[in-house]
Amino acid sequence: MLADGKPIFLIGLPGSGKTTVGKLLSTQLGIPFIDLDDIIVQREGRAISEVFEKEGEDYFRKVEAACLASLIESKDSKVVATGGGTPCFFDNLEKMNRDGVTCYLETSWKELAARVAPGESIRPLFKGLAGSEVMTQLQERFSWRLPFYQKAQIIISTENKLASDVATELLARL
Ligand SMILES: Nc1ncnc2c1ncn2[C@@H]1O[C@H](COP(=O)(O)OP(=O)(O)OP(=O)(O)O)[C@@H](O)[C@H]1O
Ligand SMILES: O=C(O)C1=C[C@@H](O)[C@@H](O)[C@H](O)C1
Ligand SMILES: [Mg+2]
Asked: How many domains does the chain contain in total?
């Protein structure tokens, strides 16, 4: 198995299903699930939105990289849902590819827009916008990230698939 004893890192845009698929996969494999965003919240003792607001993105990215590095150092098998931006800063992606198995959950702009639906209070950026506006916002903000995601060792399209099907497909490719 490709992932024998190594951490499995799920990467992709917000709404691509990293948390949902990650939890399912960890149950199927019988190994722990860790959400990198939760580790950051624990370490900082405050919400990510507060870290962004009070300290700015540069600070957040440094904390994110440090939390990722300590997860990698522990060298045990686990499924890690990374943050949407994690592979796109510093050498985070190289580290994940070197010491773990990376999987990009590829999802179209249209599908992402439908998932991060307007009105969801946890995504203030998209609140009150129509579906097509959400799609444009996503593209404008995040197109630059795609070349990073595409360097993952495994790429799985999530299009028209249930999260459970995505987890099963990933399991078969590990
Ligand atoms: N394959 C799928 N098909 C349809 N809906 C999905 C699929 N995977 C996830 N979802 C739904 O999309 C939403 C976002 O999923 P999830 O929170 O797992 O994404 P994420 O990549 O962890 O996002 P974030 O980066 O914001 O943490 C959830 O409502 C989830 O139920
Ligand atoms: O896409 C991003 O840049 C982010 C996604 C979230 O998972 C968090 O890591 C944070 O809100 C930043
Ligand atoms: Mg998530």
From this structure: 1
Tell me the CATH number at 147: 3.40.50.300
User: Encoding tokens for residue 92?
Assistant: 């985070």
Which ligand has the shortest distance to the CA of 145? 2
Cβ burial 62-92 (10 Å sphere, 16+ → b, else e): ebbbebbeebbeeeebbbbbbbbbbbbbeeb
Please give the residue range of the domain that contains residue 56.
8-173
User: Is ipTM beyond 0.90?
Assistant: yes
Calculate how far, in angstroms, residue 148's C-alpha sits from the geometric centre of ligand 3: 18
- Res 134: pLDDT: 85
Please identify, by atom number, the ligand 2 atom nearest to the C-alpha of residue 88. 3
Q: Which residue has the higher pLDDT, 5 or 61?
A: 61
Question: Quick check: pTM over 0.90?
Answer: yes
